[in-house]
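Session log. Operator J.P. requested a structure for one protein chain; no other inputs attached. Running the standard single-chain path with token output.
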Amino acid sequence: MTLYFDNARLIDPESRMDDIGSLLVENGHIIDRDTPCPDKGERIDCDGKCLAPGIIDTGVKIGEPGERHKESFRTAGLAAAAGGVTTIVTRPDTMPAIDNPETLEFFIRRGAEATSINIAPLAALTRGRNGREMVEVGFLLDAGAVGFTDGDHVITDTKVMSRCLTYARSLGALVIGHPQEPGLSSGASVTSGKFASLRGLPSVSAMAERMGLERDIALVEMSGVRYHADQVTTATALPTLTRAKADGLDVTAGISIHHLTLNEFDVEGYRTFFKLKPPLRSEEDRLAMIEAVRTGVIDIVSSMHTPQDEESKRLPYEEAASGAVGLETLLPAALRLYHSEHLDLPTLFRAMSFNPAKRLGLPGGRLSKGAPADLVLFDPDTPFVMDRFKLQSKSKNTPYDGQRMQGRVRGTWVAGKQVFGA
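Structure written below.
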């Protein structure tokens, strides 16, 4: 099958290109750029709209097995396609956790049956994510795991963590940590400060993130493991991260789009759709993290898609579940940073597509010859008002509900096959 994308504004994060051109696709792979239109196949007039590598979204929670009422593979796949996401890197915090090859094989098989979106699964680092006994890392790698994490269940026993990292290093496995000091973070729902005090909400100091990151970085230095911090959200943690990279450690870091576009004042009115983990930070932190993405200190921007049902969110703020859906809102939310002139499109897609592919060893994230034709066509300027009830996800817990946004996906292709069109 041959596709010819003509008159497209090509966004290539690998070469940092943003220019009008064309793209030739055959048999699910990119063949070349700016070539004459072939006689065979389908010509797609992009009308000057942006054509970029499909988004590779890390930290996506799927409710199968155990919480299918919150999100299924089918609904997550529909949401991903509508949001220009062509690969979802899934979390192991299912019920039961993905901590053995049998559960992982079921998970992969179920995903392949239910959606055309690429699935790149993470496995748990310890059994049941309980922080006590290491999983069978080698067997899980063989079964298809692209990395290992206990998610927001921070391993409190440093000796167990050290053993896990050392063993993962021997197999070349990527470990993803959640940098928070668990004692300080326990029970907190907002970031400490004047705002938290005025609202009377349980809070945690931003220093808890730095403390958690400092511990993990020390263990990385000791073990030599490949390490990724799932979310670094505070300015106080940035010097630790910068120093680790300068010292040559194999360390990367991510952040959710919510922490780049929202701040602690959005919690005004105790709106539980804004309750996240880690909690929203100060405006100074938000601006510092945008700059960190621009300079490459923060490598990856993701949705941290966490579906929660109405019963989990319609509770007093401190009792409500944390998390927000984001597969469908990641791109328009990220385009806020483009329209505010904080980040250009190649930088955004470097963080949302190229860097995740590079870190996880995936083939996508670029527009170069031979890359898979995982593509998103979007209009960055189309305005709309977010209506959570129009989202494809089963759960509708988005903090952007009712907000004015810009940017609509016009088409999504996975391996040259169109999975969404508007």
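Operator note: The radius of gyration is 21 Å.
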